[in-house]
Amino acid sequence: MMNVELFKEAQFTEAELDRLNLLFWCLAWVFHTSPLDDYLRGILLNNLVDPAGGDPGWYLNLISRREAADYSEQWDACIVHSSHPELGCYEAWALADISGIEPETAYYTVEEVRHYIRLALDNIAQQHPERTKEVQEVIARYRL
Questions:
Q1: What does the domain layout of the chain look like in residue ranges?
Q2: Alpha carbon distance 93, 31 (integer Å)
């Protein structure tokens, strides 16, 4: 289901696509709804009241402590690459039976997640000019 249109301006090697595929799967579901920030409140603000995942079996949660990660060694590896390790890393998960992606869990830096959210929003505005105002408001609200 990876919606390459959300990330069409970026160039990826096959290895990068393999590593980012789970993140892109989750982000495709993030922007599958209206308003655009329906899931972003839970993801970017780490607001436990708002959803950071949904059906069909996916989530993108900010994990700020090693003990909270499903796979602490992978979380450690993510933290090493982060410019802001104090913020933690995002844990992306999607049910492999639905997504077709293995392994079901991967970790991404805060910078990566914010970068690809911004890229997706920019592409939404470009492809759907009627949503430009909403995109600009979301970018400003979350300082993307």
A1: 19-141
A2: 16
Determine the pLDDT at residue 26. 93
CB 93 within 8 A of CB 105: yes
- pLDDT the model gives residue 56: 80
Please give the residue that has the higher pLDDT: either 15 or 46: 15
Distance separating alpha carbons of residues 43 and 90, to the nearest angstrom: 9
CA–CA separation, 48 and 8 (whole Å):
31
CA atoms within 13 A on the CB side of 49: 0
Span 71-80, average pLDDT: 97
Buried/exposed code over 118-132 (b: 16+ C-beta within 10 A; e: otherwise): ebbbbbbbeeeeebe
| Residue 19 CB burial class (10 angstroms; 0-12, 13-18, ≥19) | middle
Q: Please enumerate in sequence order all residues whose Cβ is within 8 A of that of 82, keeping only pairs 6 or more positions apart, or say none.
A: 89, 109, 110, 111
Question: Residue for token digits 């990876």?
Answer: 2
